[in-house]
Each structure stands twice: as structure tokens, then as C-alpha cells.
Amino acid sequence: MEKADIGMIGLAVMGENLAMNLESKGYTVSVFNIETEWVDRFIEGRAKGKKVIGCHSFKEMVESLKTPRKIMMMIRAGSPVDQTIDALLPLLSDGDILIDGGNSNYNDTTRRTHYVESQGKLFIGTGVSGGEEGAFKGPSLMPGGSPAAWESVKPIFQKICAHTASGEPCCDWVGEDGAGHFVKMVHNGIEYGDMELICECYQMMRKLLHLTDDEMSVIFKKWNQTELDSYLIGITGEILAYKDIDGTPIVEKILDTAGQKGTGKWTGISALEEGVPLTLIGEAVFARCLSAMKEERVAAAKAYPKKEIPFDGDREEFIEQMRKALFASKIISYAQGYSLMRTAAKTYGWNLNYGGIALMWRGGCIIRSTFLGKIKEAYEADPNLTNLLLDPFFRSMILNCEDSWRKVVSAAALHGVPVPGLSSALSYFDGYTSEILPANLLQAQRDYFGAHTYERTDHERGKFFHTDWTGHGGRTSSETYNA
What we know:
By secondary structure, the protein is an alpha/beta fold. The chain has 19 helices and eight strands.
């Protein structure tokens, strides 16, 4: 019997579709699911007549594979991954490769990489983006972990992944340990930001301009022909046009309580740990949390009825201003995400290719857009670029959009439409581009109540001072530290 090129554990929608993708590219695939009836259903259904080997135990799967064995897990993150690794390790030979393609926390991936390597095997934690369609037709793949595993996996991953219009694979080695899953986490954080910004524009269109869903669909489809061209803008146009069986827009029948699976929250936590102001993505996560408080919001809306203020501006002009505000805020989202990756790379010793990461996101993934090509060009022109806002192209785009951005945020505030993403993006921009911020007063406050010390403008950086503000506080100060 022919040995399989790769094994797939987990036959939910992502695992099934990846297995079908692998088989369609010429690979023989072994499949296993802990509920073995799923294996039989797959073999007799979608995989019937394909080069797919159904396995009913870990041992059977291991014995069905060519060496070095490559086994990919598409299972729920957390303890199931650890349990599967522990079950497989005794059955494997040195040099065999375990691959975790789930949405695992990068810290877990780092731990697992070291553990699997200590047992003589190799480990890859890879981000997989693109949803079920991407898994089937070609996802964006972001692998990291054991560098020695990459050469064996590279031909497979770069064959099944999405490709740009010029044929470049949307997959390359990210870095050691948890680097792959970290980059996927940031991708998901940016995804949160993109979705929140789009939803805020949708809310303004219906609450401020009183547009119909069909009218909004046309607008988003037009926007998708501009520099906002992206997967998320494209599907928004399609969603708004989709009708329920009674002919009414189905989106208006969907309860306004958003779910989340944790990666956006992890991005915010990581930003806090690294001291990176990830304000827009943080607001996008909190917006989902606020939406989940449906009953409280309904009660609060009755307690604070909003005064309807008619919009008296030029509607078409405001729609164009919204487009520019969305684009400027989108730049901020990516600027913040890339700042987090740069800071984490220093912390963990990763040598990240920032232009290459933009290329990985150009196809297959949820945040794929034309816009990413400009990010790739920015980092190719200056690999040491500290912030996207300092790139000449993005500077020119922000300057072109700034006036519209301010008008949209102002209008939203005046009309009582919540836009936490658009407004926090603008506040970040204003803070990042301010030579002087009020942190001097903040440092004085900290020194007053806690003797935390401060630096002075008339002395060199790194020299700290303490003032006895009350005259009886003493001369002793606390140690200087960042917290």
C-alpha cells in the first residue's frame, strides 16, 4: 500500500478542506479524527475515490506515513493539542514533524516546540488564515517553530497555499518558536480592527444618512474598486445585498451581539505586555464585548433616549469622507500591528521579514487586500522602518485623508453614533505625531504621591530627579522602572 505524504488529524471543516486541498495538489493524505465515524463518513463521502487513507488510531496513522513523517493537527487549541502530542510522540521516530495549524497561543507553541525537540522530534506552529474557503482553495500560511523542519514542509505548504497574481506563494518561514502563531495572532487583531471600522461606517450610513441596505451595498462595492479593495469590503457589499426568504435584508435580522474566539484579546494582552499602544485593535475587542451586553444596552437606551439630529450636509460628500476616514484608520490598524511585531521580535529574538509577512497576507487570508502590496513596498524600501506612518506613501495617504477623517469623527460624536475604532485611530495619530504630550504632568503626579522620579528637559536623558513636593516627603525616591 502506498504511504501517505502527510497526515491530517481533525476532520472538522478546516481539516477536511485542507485534506482535500492537499489531495488536489497531488499528495496522498492520511486522515484521523478522535470520533472515528467522522473518518468513515469522509472516506465514503467527499474523499471517495481520492488519494486519502482513513485511519482509526494514532498508530495506524503513523504507520501509514512516509518518513520523515509529517502530521498536521487541525484541532481545538489548548489541552487537546497537548494530549495529541503526548499520544503521538512515543509512536514517532527522531526527525518526524508535528504541525499545529489551530489558533494556538504563541506561548503554548514556544513551549511545545521546546518539548517536542527535547524528544528528538520537530515541531511547527503555523497560522492558517482564510476560513473554510481558504483551506480548500489556498490559505495564507504562517509557519514557525523548529527551523530544521521547514525544508521538509516547505514544498507542501507553498504548493497548497494561496498565491499572488504574480504567482508568489502566500507562505514563508516566519521564525523560531511561537513566531508563526504570533504573526497569525496579530493578523487576527488587525482583522478585528478592519471589521470594526467597516461596521462603524455601516452604522453611520444607516443611522446618520438613513440609507437602505441596497444603497449601502452599492457603496461598499464601489469602495472595493478603490484603494480599499479587500476581501472584507467585498463581502460586506455582498452581505448587505443578501435577502432572506421574505425578500428583506437578512443582515437586519441578525442579533447585534458579536462573538470572538480569543485571538483579538491575546493581541491586546500582548500589546500591554510589550508596552505597545494597540489602541484601535483594543477598542475593536472591547466593542465586541460591549455588543454582547445586549440586555443592559436595551435598558440603558431607554434611560438615555438619543435626540435625533437630522443630517444637513451633502450626503455624497460625507460618503466620500467616510471612505477616506476608513482608509486612514485602516493604515493606523496596520501601523499598530506592525509596531507590536517589531517590539515582540526584539523581545523574543525573532528575525521577522515584515515585507514578507505582508506578502503572506496578500492572498488567501481574511485581511487580504491590495493595500498590503504597499506595506511590502514600504519595508522593501526601508527594512528598518519603525512605523508605517513614516513611510512616504502612507504619509501622503494620511495627509490626503486627514481632513475627512476629522469631519467624520466629529459628525459621529455630534449625532451620537459610537465610532470607537475611527476615533481611537485618530487619537493615536494625533498622539504619535505630537512633539509634546501632557505626560510631564503625569510624571509630576507620580512623583508627588509615590516618589517615582522624573527626567528633566534641561538634563540628559537617563538622569532621574525627585522633588519633595510637600516639604515633608523626604528625599528618598523609589527605584525607577517601567510599569
